[in-house]
Amino acid sequence: MPTRKLYWQDPYRTTFTARVVQRLTGDRPGVILNRTIFYPTGGGQPHDTGLLGGVRVIDVSSDDGGNIIHWLEAPLPEDADEVSGEIDWARRYDHMQQHSGQHLLSAAFQDVLYRPTIGFHLSENTVTIDLPGPPPDDEAVNRVLDFVQTAIAEARPITAREYPLAEAIRLPLRKPPTVDGPVRVVEIQGLDWSACGGAHVRNASEIGHLVITRMERRGDQTRVYFLAGGRATADHVQRIRITRDLGALLTTGVEDLPAATQRMQEQVKESQKALRQARELLIQAEAKRLIAEAPHSAGVDIVLHILETDEAGELGRLLQALVAAPSVVALLGWTGGERPRWAAGRSSNVPLDMLESLSELKETYGVQGGGSPEMIQGAAPDEETMHKVLHLLQAFAFDLPDID
Ligand SMILES: [Zn+2]
Predict the structure, then answer these.
(1) CB-CB contact of 21 with 76 (8 Å)
(2) 367 CA to middle of ligand 1, Å?
(3) pTM more than 0.70
(4) Ligand 1 centre from 49 Cα, in Å?
(5) Is pLDDT above 90 for 178?
(6) In CATH, what number does 92-249 get?
(7) How far, in Å, from the CA of 126 to the mean position of ligand 1?
(8) Which CATH entry fits the domain spanning 4-87: 2.40.30.130, 2.40.160.20, 3.40.140.10, 1.10.10.10?
(9) Cα(100) to centroid of ligand 1, in Å?
(10) N or C: which end of the chain has fewer CB within 10 A?
(11) By C-alpha distance, which of 227, 233, 225 is closest to 101?
């Protein structure tokens, strides 16, 4: 005998007693009862949780024979032939609100936009339906939501009834029934008839409020994220808090948040541009100062300088600024990172082959690096090696023939 589904007779029932029919032992203990108010995972609706004989029910499933299996945290007491149970009502009621909301929203998409629902997912955090085609525009979505809110405001009764198959197929069902026997049909009075084994609220007014939070294109389908009942209210409260905090941060009202944010983004962009320009000027000034103070040998200014900035990019920028001037050899070190780095370059009129210098460095100090005949750079294992590298390069520069 399949388990009697008390949640079909009265989805608002929260306590019951039942006879133990079978105990399952294995990885986790389970029990089959002659009847239950525990809804098993199915039809897109997650299972109930609660207590059975004082033991936590952590999962509920159904088998092909119509048995409903309560999976327990611990085995029931051995002498328990009869148990009383209680479901977590807040969880169940949330599922009922979301599931009834789904039927109503699917009916709205079908009747307003001729888009059938081809998927439904209900989890702890999200509720979605899938529709064929690309996401509808805001105006179309508003018409769908009007349909939904009207049914809620009209407080349309939601009922479930079993029909013989021959009768069921004469109803305007959303989808043809997939069962051979009697078909359980959930009706939102005068609006929607769906073959469904789920638990539903008894009146559309209990859906309370329904909002679409997001639409996502998935190939040639659209996933619609929505919230109903308590979830919609919680989401509303959270959004009010977020917009209020944003308004306080930007000292503006909710309506002006997008414009204020856009203004702020533009200001940030302008500030970044001004900062880049100021940095560039600083680097140019620094390059000029370093060249003026550098020792002069055979017509070449030989700059040796260790940067004390946090920013690695400054090494390259300062080097560029230095060798843009004529008759300069620039030797730079940077110790702001994990490993010391060095870079060396020369003006185009200085006859120093940097690659040749690099191969000597590799031979002498085993350092790594790369570059071109004008510019080389690399990392050193420690600061001491970095200094040795720069001083060797400096010696090469002092050995240059006169270019004047
Ligand atoms: Zn359903």
Answers:
(1) no
(2) 69
(3) yes
(4) 19
(5) no
(6) 3.30.980.10
(7) 16
(8) 2.40.30.130
(9) 7
(10) C
(11) 227
The strand pairing partners of 122, in sequence order, are 127
CA of 24 to the centre of ligand 1 (A): 30
- How many angstroms separate the alpha carbon of residue 359 from the centre of ligand 1? 75
Looking at residue 248, the DSSP 8-state letter turns out to be H
Q: Where are the domains of the chain?
A: 4-87, 92-249, 283-398
Phi and psi (nearest 5°) for 281?
-60, -40
Q: In angstroms, rounded to a whole number, what is the distance separating the alpha carbons of residues 284 and 303?
A: 14
First to last CA, the chain: 108
> What's the 186 CA to ligand 1 centre distance in angstroms?
7
pLDDT 10s digits, 247-277: 999 999 989 999 999 999 999 999 999 999 9
Q: Report the alpha-carbon distance of residue 246 to residue 256 in Å, rounded.
A: 11
Q: Is the pLDDT of residue 345 over 90?
A: yes
pLDDT tens per residue, range 40-76:
999 889 999 999 999 999 999 999 889 999 999 999 9
* Token pair recorded at residue 154: 């009209």
Residue 340 CA to residue 331 CA, distance in Å, equals: 14
- The CATH number for 283-398, chosen from 1.10.150.20, 3.40.50.10170, 3.10.310.40, 3.40.50.300, is 3.10.310.40
Distance, in Å, from the CA atom of 208 to the CA atom of 259, rounded to the nearest integer, reads 32
